Amino acid sequence: MTTEVDVRAALARLGIDEPVRADLAGLRTVHRAWSSTVPYENIDIQLGRPVSLAPDELIDKLITRRRGGFCYELNAMLALVLRALGFSVMVVEAAVDREIRGESAWRNHMPLLVDLAGERWIADVGLMDGFLLPVPLRPGVHRQSRFSYEVRHLGDDLWQFRHHPNSAFTSFDLRCAPLEVADFVEACAWRVDSPDSMFVQTLLAGRTEVDRTAVLRARTLTHAGPAVPYGQHRRVLDSMDDLADVLANEFLIPLDGIDVAGLWDNACRQHETWLADAARS
C-alpha cells in the first residue's frame, strides 16, 4: 500500500500557505522553507529510540509532530513531499568526505536529484549545515546570497559537491544511478545502532538560514557564514536549561516528550571525551 502525503499539511509544516507548482520556482520555495524550518537532529538516536524510513513513520515524526531527523529521514521525507507535488525525483547514493574516508564512505548520505525542464538539480536537506536552495548539477561555482558552492564533474555519472569554508564537511561525491530509499535501510540502521557511529557518539543538530548556519555538537554551538562576525563563532553550552533553549529556539525542535536531562548528560559526557582527546593530540 502506498502512503499518501497530505500536501496541505506538509506545506503548512513548512510555513507555505500558497499552492506549489512542480517547476523550478516551486522547488526553490519548498527547499528553502525546509532547510530553514525542519532541523537536522539525531535526538532519537541519542535517546536510544528507533528510527524508521517507513513513509507513515516519517510523516508522523516530521510533519505531524514537527520534529527533525538526520540525513536519510529528511531526504526520504522530502522525496515523498516533492513527488506528491508532481516533481520527478531520483534517490541516489553519496559519499560525504570520500576524499578522506575512501570508498567505504559510499551510502553514508542519500541526496536527491530533481529533473526540471532539461536540467538536473541537487535537492538535499540532510547536510546539517547545507544549502538553502537546490543546486544545479552543473560544473562551476554556484552562489546563494553570500555563500558559494562548487560542483565538479568527476567523469561518467560521478559528481562532487564542495561546501563553503567553515562548514561541517568538505565535500560529497554522488553517483547518478537511481536507487530507492529501501536501498539505504542497512546503512541507516548501522548509523542508528553501532557504537562506532558518530550519530551514536555525539548529539548533533543543524539548521541553515540566509548567510548563516548553526551546528550543535554535544555542548558546542557553532555559528558560521558571512553574516557571522569573523565568519565563525563558537560557545559551549553551560546548563541543561541552555541546551533546552538552544534546541527549542535555535533549532526549532519541540521538546514535548524529549528527555532533555538525558540529552544533557550525554552531551556533557561527549564534551569531556572531546576535551580529553584534544589534550592528548
Automatic annotation (TrEMBL):
Gene Ontology MF terms in the entry: acetyltransferase activity
Gene3D superfamilies: Arylamine N-acetyltransferase (3.30.2140.10), Cysteine proteinases (2.40.128.150)
Pfam family, any one: Acetyltransf_2
Keywords, comma-separated and alphabetical: Transferase
PANTHER family assigned to the protein according to its UniProt record, in alphabetical order: ARYLAMINE N-ACETYLTRANSFERASE 4-RELATED, N-HYDROXYARYLAMINE O-ACETYLTRANSFERASE
Family: Belongs to the arylamine N-acetyltransferase family.
UniProt-recorded name of the protein: N-hydroxyarylamine O-acetyltransferase
